[in-house]
Amino acid sequence: MSEQPQEKFVERIDAVFLPVKNLQESLVWYQDTFGFDLRWKKERMCGLSIAPNCGFHLVEISDFQPIDTYTPFNYVVKDVEKVRQLLIEKNVTVSNVRNGEPKRFDVTDINGNMISVIEL
Length: 120
Fold this sequence. Notes:
The model has no long low-confidence stretch (mean pLDDT 93). The longest helix has 12 residues, at 23-34. The protein has 2 helices and 8 strands; from the N terminus they run E-H-E-E-E-E-H-E-E-E. It has helices spanning 23-34, 80-89, and strands at 15-20, 37-41, 45-51, 54-60, 74-77, 93-94, 104-108, 114-119. By secondary structure, the protein is α/β, with parallel strands linked by helices. The protein has a 4-stranded mixed sheet. Strands 5-8-7-6 form a 4-stranded mixed sheet, covered by helices on one side. Strand 2 and strand 3 form a beta hairpin. The chain is globular. Helix content is 18%, strand content 35%.
């Protein structure tokens, strides 16, 4: 292995693809729950708008298995307690808030996928 620093040529992650069992049901759930706008939709996948230069995509998988043993990514919010309460009012399954850095909790989506919500 070379001791010289490797040139970094990747600028950022463009998109995250989350597997789902039913694209249309999942799309409605993410729009109703988080207010994400639809950017585009195809037969098996769609792109949702969260923020500039932040792609979040749902992809329908025929042999779907939920990601329920870890959280593959985090949503960043300004106030974890407020967002958690809003999600509870929408009957979304959430964990307790875990203090520490960063302050966070987990959400379970309509498919059983876990996603972390963190305060930064």
